[in-house]
Amino acid sequence: MNVARSPGELEPAQRAVAIGTFDGLHVGHRRVIEAALAAHLRPAVVTFDPHPRTTLGDPVKLLATTERRLELLDELGVEDVLLLRFDEQLAALTAEAFAESILRAIGAVVIAAGDGFRFGEHRTGDLDLLERLGFDVRRVPLVDNASSSHVRRLIQTGDVEHAAGLLGRPPEVEGTVVGGDRRGASLGFPTANLDVPDELLVPPLGIYAGAALGHRAAVSIGTNPHYGGTERRVEAHLLDYEGDLYGQRLVVELWQRLRDEAAFESEAALVAQIAEDVQRARAARRPA
After folding, report:
1. Domain count of the chain?
2. Which domain holds residue 242?
3. Distance in angstroms (rounded) separating the CA atoms of residues 12 and 107
């Protein structure tokens, strides 16, 4: 998949373009991508970084990093992505100027977008305008409850299973594996301690079943209250995994919320609870 930052970086071609922010690539977003793929032209996506709401003064926690979003688009079969920096200059473009200097400039013939898609300065552009400008517009009906905002609300309550139904895959946390206290290893359950990007949405504190690198995982999102911790950490114990993950980027699926985090009357009680968490993670089923 080719990733460009300006229209001139893409080779000339007639393209079917799906356009949107596509945070999380939920099932509604996927239908937009599928509409572009079905047009039998070179499939492309126009999307934005940072999230437009951030530039417009209404920051939002993201369901996926830009890197992960690009990986998911690649998996769907998109050939080209125009990743536009959404800054004040881009926000100030009139809808007509955006259509001509961005969409027309990359050879867009077909435009696929969700019903209600708006663009351009003060969001004055819509799909009717694109039709008047001569584009073949494929309007994709909205999927009930499938919005990034609704998925965020579910994840913020720890309801990762219902979120998975709307995403079409389990929600994820990701980050670079960094050094920790190595307390897990001393207890017999070594963990990968993730440095999660600040802009990424993280579910509430608790213990989750999930997976990473093809291994089931017991995932702790918490402060280690048994040891008096105060800093939130995301730690994944990968079942039956042996290897050094330090410095690597790790994407962790979250399948099920198992319990709240807790302090215990003894370290032995903590170890017994972790062992139970691991067994529940081993038995968990992947949602969606």
Report:
1. 2
2. 170-283
3. 7
